Amino acid sequence: MTNIRRADIHDLDSLVTLFDAYRTWYRKESNLEQARLFLSDRINKEESIIFVATIENKVVGFTQLYPLFSSTRMKRLWLLNDLFISPEARGKGLSKQLLMASQNLCRETGACAVSLETEISNTIGNNLYPKMGFELNETHNFYEWSNDTN
Questions:
Q1: CA distance 5 to 15
Q2: At 146, is the pLDDT very low, low, confident or very high (cuts 50, 70, 90)?
Q3: DSSP result, 70-112
């Protein structure tokens, strides 16, 4: 039986493993200790909302959202920053369920949008997001300044 629910500190051990796998999928070096500290801070400081997907009470996927604000819309919006399903649990519709939980969070908090970014090469995500009602923004440029000293 699958379930989607909001994560809490009791999910930390399961989340650390998935979060580390997510980061290595994006070609970052594995660092379980730093992943634990990072996620623990987000949960304890209530700086993000994490939803977990479970199969028979085992955490097999997650999404993490950060609150932002839109000055032009004068409302909160949510940045869906992370979405990952463990390889053995893929193909069961869990990504869709996590996206729906994110959309419900947007509605429940009166936010104006859920925004996300993914690599152009992420064909699975780039096929999934439009099916879930996300629209590719082709009218704006996305720029980033990187502080490479960290």
A1: 13
A2: confident
A3: ETTTTEEEEEEEEEEE-GGGTTSSHHHHHHHHHHHHHHHTT-S
Residue with token string 């989607």: 4
Tokens of 117: 């970014």
| CB 24 within 8 Å of CB 30 | yes
Rounded to an integer, what distance in angstroms lies between the CA atom of residue 30 and that of residue 37? 14
Side-chain half-sphere CA neighbours of 21 within 13 A = 14
Rounded Cα–Cα distance for residues 20 and 83 (Å): 12
Task: Classify 41 as helix, strand or coil.
Answer: helix
State the pTM of this model: 0.93
Give the β-pairing of 75-85 and 49-55: unpaired
pLDDT for the residue 150: 56
